[in-house]
Amino acid sequence: MSDRKKAVGVETIGMTMRFGAFTALDDVSIKVPAGSFHALLGENGAGKSTLVKCMMGFYHPTAGDILVDRREVAITSPKDASALGLGMVYQHFTLVPSLTGAENLVIAREKVPGIIDWRKERAALAQFMQRMPFKLPLDVKVAELAAGEKQKLEIIKQLYLGRSFLVLDEPTSVLTPGEAQEVLGLVRGMTKAGDLTVLMISHKFHEVTAFADDITVLRKGRLTGTGKVSELSHKRMAAMMIGDQPIAALDSRAPVPVGARQILTVKALKAPDRTGLKTIHIGALDVKSGEIVGVAGISGNGQKEFLEVLAGQRARDAGDVLVKGSPYGASRAEARTLNVRFIPEEPLRNACAPRMTVAENMAFRTFDLNEAGKPINWIKMSAIRDYAARLVEHFKVKTASLASPISSLSGGNVQRAVLARELTGEVDLLIVSNPCFGLDFSAVAEIRARIMKARNAGAAVLLMSEDLDELLELSDRIFVMSDGALVYETPIAQASVQTIGEHMAGHH
Amino acid sequence: MDSTEIGLWGVPLAMLGGAIRVSTPFIFVSLGEAITERSGRINLGLEGTLVFGAMTAYAVAVMTGSPWLGLLAAAAAGLCFGLFHGWICKFRGVNDIAIGIALMLFGSGLAFFFGKPFIQPSAPDLPAIPFGGWSDVPQVQAALNVNVLFLIGAALAVFLWWAFRNTRAGLILRVVGDSSDAARAMGLNPNTVRLLATGLGGALAGIGGAYLSLYYPGSWTEGISSGQGLMAVALVIFARWNPLGCFAAALLFGGAGALGPALQSVGVTQGYYLFYAAPYILTLIIMIATSSPSRSLAGAPGELSITK
């Protein structure tokens, strides 16, 4: 904990992992020399997490060896891995939210005294923090830290525990561009100084190019490429990752017609946030027909609450939400007459009944209407099935059958099914949140293309996303939400990542 | 001197005395429940544990002549109930609340079954310390006659408050209660921690039961606990899982519970039954006042099934 160990190098030889008949990892050998910054690239399900979980002792590989500092070692549990100085920072935080930073660090240690002498511990921590490249408040509950601070604390925790080889699993997915630069820059500095070796799982090419020395690419459990970052282009990396499957192309952006009708108007909206201690306050927001308005922001700055108000999941204290000039309270009848459609984040949880069938889920908007759109009393299962069969074909949803529960589908196909339901019929207003989170390349491209198509067909789209690249690709205008308010607006032509990032971080 | 001489002053005085007397079982049960809930589990069976503890303590005290042995036996019985709850709950698909309700009925039923022969005989009381010697007003003396268990309970509340942040065991308990995943990543077994926490909670509830039968009211009857074990669970929630808060809330409940008898003693003859309901009304009022439709409960352990 206190003595700084030197970086260690790790190598795997012929790593193979089978789960029953399924081969998740097939003969993968990678080499991460001491003091290097190595990036591991691949689509969802390519075997990246399986590989690192084998290295960390969570899985026992079917075949293959691990070498630490060129010596063969047996890692049968996470404990073995940590004894060798191998540590992992997960995509989802493993800090305990109700404990302070200091408490989190001390309790994670191997040996903790029965009674903790906080004066002594604090002094030791202060000394340790002096050697660290980042400054952090350690006396604040982790729940109150910003995402970037949590991520830094996760890394600090690993260093405090004496790890000198770190696996970072998509470490910047919850950070602003500025924070990402800072954290990766500092980690990069430590590898250059020879104190740390890093294996980073990522799918952001610009980060890989800026910080990594070498890359390894996996696809469907196989190693498909490796090399020095300086010798590879983004295009080459993408080809290694996705192979030769076709990628849906984005429709070209039709210009927003002059005098396009204003569809969504939000005025002086106030609502409590989820802690009840703060309020979110949306001064004015409007979305016109045929444009995509993006809302950027780090998670936890009120976007989720704003969305919940629009979706009718959260009561508002004050303000108006108007759709095509009439007040909108998110009731089923209003959504139907005003043609409002909604694609929330984590669609399986927020837009589906997971155990109901694919067909039933796809009929949620229409099951109680007949072909003419009039309410019916008796529901025809055959009509629901026929309707779903048409949508499944049209939107290329991959499902074993229409009668299988929607929770058995992969993330991308759940999202396709929800898109099919929401984008069929007349759409005047489409509210979308993080539509591509956790999906693979081809699904992402297709879903973005569908949203663009809806826009070009005249829908007003409000898109909230934590992925700045997605917003820059799709939006006509971008708002930045920070601390519960819209703090910045820019048309896409003048948008700069730098300025948006500064507003996201709350200092400008 | 008689009660009319100090007149209406008798009411706050009797409430103070009542707060100290009536609150003790609340203190123990709520501290026990606070430990259990901090580990991420809820044990509703403490009502049954309380009643069984009361019966066990009384029976052992009658047979051995020692109230302290009775107290120990009650704690041991409570520990067994707690461990049983903790052990069952580790299996997949078992709901801690349902098991708690089953154990509540089981504990009471078992206590009535074994306790029948002990309704008649009388057991020695737990000792009390007279802090009211300086006054010659009998009401003051009565109010300040403080049982040792109350003092132990107060000390325990302070100790737990300190231990939750300053000991390894306290921190581990909070880690497990807040995030099973984080606990597993640290190499802790959440089930073991919860088993021990539920066991400890049960033992404390057993001690609360011993107080009921061995001091106040001081005899074993089937109606000995009027839902104190259940109310203590509610009490933990609005004490925000803080041991000092539990202590204060228990005192408040004790005081409210003493309102009815106190009014009766100063000669109020009408409507005092309504004041007997004071603790329950207080529960409702505090629950409503401290909850909100739009905000989640602050300070709740993340793994607790009722707040998830």
From TrEMBL, chain A:
The keyword Lipoprotein does not apply. SUPFAM superfamilies: P-loop containing nucleoside triphosphate hydrolases. Keywords: ATP-binding, Nucleotide-binding. GO terms for molecular function: ATP binding; ATP hydrolysis activity. It holds the Pfam family ABC_tran. CDD domains: ABC_Carb_Monos_I, ABC_Carb_Monos_II. Residues 10-245, 263-508 form the ABC transporter domain. PANTHER family: CARBOHYDRATE TRANSPORT ATP-BINDING PROTEIN MG119-RELATED, GUANOSINE IMPORT ATP-BINDING PROTEIN NUPO. Belongs to the ABC transporter superfamily. This is ABC transporter ATP-binding protein.
From TrEMBL, chain B:
It is a multi-pass membrane protein. Keywords: Cell membrane, Membrane, Transmembrane, Transmembrane helix. This is ABC transporter permease. It comes from the Bacteria. It comes from Mesorhizobium mediterraneum. One of its GO terms (molecular function) is transmembrane transporter activity. One of its GO terms (cellular component) is plasma membrane. The chain crosses the membrane at residues 6-32, 44-62, 68-88, 97-119, 139-164, 193-214, 246-266, 272-290. Coiled coil: none annotated. InterPro entries: ABC_transp_permease. It is found in: Cell membrane. CDD domains: TM_PBP1_transp_TpRbsC_like (cd06580). The keyword Membrane applies. Signal peptide: none annotated.
